[in-house]
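Hello again, I could really use a second opinion on something today. I've been staring at a protein lately and its backbone has me curious. Can you walk me through what the tokens say about the fold? Take your time with it, there's no hurry, and the full record follows here:
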Amino acid sequence: MRSINVQFHDGLCCGFGNCAGVCPEVFALDYVTNRVKLVPDAPMAVYTTQIAQAVSECPTQAIVMFQSSDGDRQSHA
């Protein structure tokens, strides 16, 4: 099974909300901070395709997605 890790570059996020429109099961727009946040306990592995689309549609490239197999020991820092 693949492990999905999503990270945000807060300084780049401008709150356009494209990601939340593409995959509301994983992304939500915080209207107080005008920044994206992850939906708690979102089953990211189920929405890999939609997450990848959200990453590609982010106009400021603020979202990064990493995929790894359970056996992978790579660092993505």
User: Anything to note?
Assistant: Residues 29 and 36 are 4 Å apart (CA to CA).
